[in-house]
Design goal:
There is one protein chain. The two termini are about 45 Å apart. It contains 16 helices and 36 strands. Helix content is about 30%, strand content about 30%. The strands form 9 sheets. Strands 13, 14, 15, 20, 23, 24, 29, 32, 35 and 36 form a 10-stranded mixed sheet that branches. By secondary structure, the chain is of the alpha/beta class.
Length: about 700
């Protein structure tokens, strides 16, 4: 135990669909990493009581490190709870208050069809049924002028609907409230006075941007999950305090920043994709450490796989995402949410993804997952359907005795039976080929999704370095790299709990977005400056509440487009007040950004700004250049195991090397498997790996292989 006052212990806890990952790390106040002072635990997620997995993991790492709970300075948490509540429709009984005439916005949507040729297409059912959408006479203009006064009496007459239906939460979404929230605020005051126990979500606070459908669905989602998520978070904080942990509980947000508990309880919709965001933050940190300008992060866990493009150590970001897609993950078949997020592509392909044979007689994998209950067949917990983990076990990629650090023994016979009866026998193929078919399907699906993601953003994938983490990614990374033409892979220490480590690398940050329509030729600069300053003050207050009186960085953005277009691109603004001639500078920057993404700009077309953003964050620790290391073949004792190599198409004798037996500069030639407590890294034939100066595994394809 270290009693140095300059040392603090922090915990990162990530609840996934299959496993809950907990990391305990010691870091000095100057931000230097102490790689020898990190302890981790991976426990099965308790879906009925998710805090149980967190507490079990916390107890495990504290015991292993011989650290008292009183020494924990911070707990940073990310969870799939909000996402699962939306997907499974297990949120609160929710109503909506909206402007008269706009009751059906949630059902009408954008009037687009995710499958234009399906005559029997059924759109997703709105979270809030029509009879619980209450309309009130009122009207704001797009410039914030009151066109029709708010009818308070009409609202008061409708409040009985809330009590009659046992409503727990209300979404308040009025027309053009993003520019003038006065009517929404009055609705809030009236409901709070009459029904103080009902949770309230205002669209002018949750998502103050143009586009009614996106704003309405985001507010509805926030209201739907707030009475469910907020008590869970407060209960987790209470349980941690009872354990003796005095440090504050912080939450990971979807945009890669950390928030205090009160903000997370108020805006739980911002917690969606918090786990994957932590992984992207980790990959950006690793890119900075290793001096890598262009990387692609590959995060594969038990339920899903995620990819993020990262340039100059900064993950790609977006202002919207779609959750709960109901039709084979088709874009447009889910709920659009208008919140700041790290931009990821995600598919239902994880270690627990269920495999089988579809109606065409082809092997299919996912998106359904065995999760933690009953789990893959090899877990021997009652699952009898074959999963990706079962296939990896059969192919020799996973040791049945070393899984989860030896705390869980896998049943090879159960995996064999599941694959044999479900895939091998129906398709008249060997057990090996059935297993190969499963993992090849997963890798090809991931490769296709990655290519499409890169093409849509006008970026290449071949010259990037892959950073692989998550319990399953290091098993598949080399094969995925072959398919994508990537020549180098980095597997960091603690890869199996990468997202939880990413939480400990994230800044405390908050982003405020508001809509204010402006054309560059006629900008109201004083009004813009006033609004940006108000946004900076609001974001700073959120950060200061979580981080105290610390140094903060500020970034401002304008979301711009050519007049007549439907979507915007982001342009960085100078800090401080904008000058009167800012329109000319913005036009030049926008055209340059547009050309970089789409090949050419549109001459003589007016440009407009629809929304503005201010991000306040604590500073990022500076990276450092890596020195060259002297490479030498490793001399650690090892064993040999039969490993199927898809690239070669046969089984080979593979070296089994324990990661903690490798020193900086040690080389491992494929075929080999480097094993550690939370994951295993497969080094195929024609690949070789070495340990770099930080202790990361660096895998390189041999010349001519990719």
């Amino acid at each position: 135990m270290d009693n140095d006052d300059n040392i603090q212990w922090r915990i990162g806890a990530d609840i996934g669909g299959t496993f809950t990952d907990v990391v305990l790390e010691r870091a000095s106040q100057d931000g230097l990493e102490k790689g020898d002072a990190r302890y981790s635990a991976k426990v099965l997620t308790n879906n009925d009581h998710p805090e149980v997995g967190v507490l079990d993991g916390v107890n495990q790492v504290l015991a292993e490190a011989d650290v008292r709970p009183q020494e924990i300075a911070q707990v940073i948490h990310g969870t799939t709870l909000a996402t699962n509540a939306l997907i499974e429709r297990k949120g609160a009984r929710t109503a909506m208050i909206t402007t008269e005439g706009f009751r059906d916005v949630l059902e009408m949507g954008s009037e687009s069809r995710f499958d234009q040729y399906d005559l029997n297409l059924q759109k997703p059912t709105p979270l809030i049924p029509r009879h619980l959408r209450i309309v009130v006479p009122e009207r704001m203009s797009a410039t914030g002028d009151v066109l029709l006064d708010f009818d308070e009496a009409a609202l008061k007459d409708s409040l009985s609907i809330l009590t009659d239906h046992g409503i727990e939460s209300v979404a308040i979404a009025l027309l053009h409230s993003y520019v003038n929230p006065a009517h929404e605020q009055r609705v809030r005051d009236i409901i709070q006075t009459a029904l103080p126990d009902i949770a309230l979500s205002l669209s002018s606070e949750v998502s103050p941007e143009i586009r009614e459908f996106d704003r309405f669905t985001t507010t509805a989602a926030n209201a739907y999950i707030q009475p469910f998520v907020a008590p869970y978070l407060r209960n987790l904080e209470r349980r941690l305090n009872e354990l003796g942990v005095p440090g504050a509980l912080y939450l990971m947000l979807s945009n890669g920043g950390i928030s205090d508990l009160e903000t997370a309880c108020r805006f739980p919709v911002r917690l969606i994709e918090s786990g994957p965001a932590g992984g992207a933050i980790l990959a950006g940190h690793i890119a900075d450490q290793c001096g890598l300008d262009q990387v692609v992060s590959y995060d594969m866990g038990g339920t899903t796989a995620k990819v993020c493009l990262i340039d100059q150590a900064v993950p790609s970001t977006a202002r919207e995402l779609e959750v709960a897609r109901e039709f084979r993950f088709k874009r447009g078949s889910g709920m659009p949410l208008r919140i700041p997020v790290i931009e990821l592509v995600e598919i239902g392909a994880g270690g627990g993804s269920i495999s089988g044979v579809n109606g065409l007689g082809l092997i299919s994998v996912g998106p359904e997952s065995a999760g933690s209950t009953p789990g893959p067949a090899c877990y021997d917990l009652g699952g009898d359907q074959p999963t990706v983990t079962d296939s990896n076990l059969i192919l020799g990629r996973i040791s049945p005795d070393l899984f989860a650090g030896g705390r869980m023994t896998l049943n090879t016979q159960a995996a064999t039976t599941a694959l044999q009866t479900t895939i091998a026998d129906p398709l008249s193929m060997s057990l090996d080929m059935a297993s190969v078919g499963v993992v090849e399907m997963v890798d090809e699906n991931m490769a296709n999704a990655t290519r499409e993601h890169a093409i849509e953003r006008g970026k290449s994938i071949e010259n990037r370095t892959m950073i692989a983490f998550g319990g399953s990614a290091p098993l598949h990374a080399a094969r995925l790299a072959q398919k994508l033409g990537i020549r180098q892979i980095v597997v960091p220490t603690g890869a199996g709990v990468g997202s939880a480590i990413g939480f400990l690398r994230a800044p405390i940050a908050f982003e405020v977005v508001r809509s204010l329509y402006q054309r560059l030729g006629s900008m109201d600069v004083p009004r813009i400056n006033t609004m940006l300053q108000e946004m900076a003050t609001e974001a700073s207050a959120f950060v200061r509440r979580a981080a105290g009186d610390v140094a903060m960085e500020e970034a401002r953005y304008a979301f711009m487009r050519f007049v007549g277009q439907n979507h915007e691109i982001s342009v960085r603004l100078p800090n401080g007040d904008l000058a009167g001639d800012i329109g000319d500078s913005l036009r030049e920057i926008f055209n340059e950004t547009y050309r970089a993404q789409f090949g050419r700009a549109l001459p003589r077309v007016e440009i407009e700004v629809t929304s503005w953003s201010v991000v306040i964050r604590t500073p990022r620790a500076p990276g450092s250049a890596l020195a060259e290391v002297s490479l030498q073949p490793h001399t650690a004792p090892n064993e040999v195991r039969s490993l199927w190599d898809p690239a070669v198409g046969e089984r080979l004798d593979a070296e089994i090397v324990h990661r903690d037996a490798l020193a900086i500069g040690d080389q491992v030639a494929g075929p080999a498997v480097i094993v550690e407590d939370e994951t295993s890294t497969v080094i195929p034939a024609r690949f070789q790996a070495h340990i770099n100066q930080i202790g990361y595994i660096v895998i390189d394809a041999m010349a001519g292989d990719v």
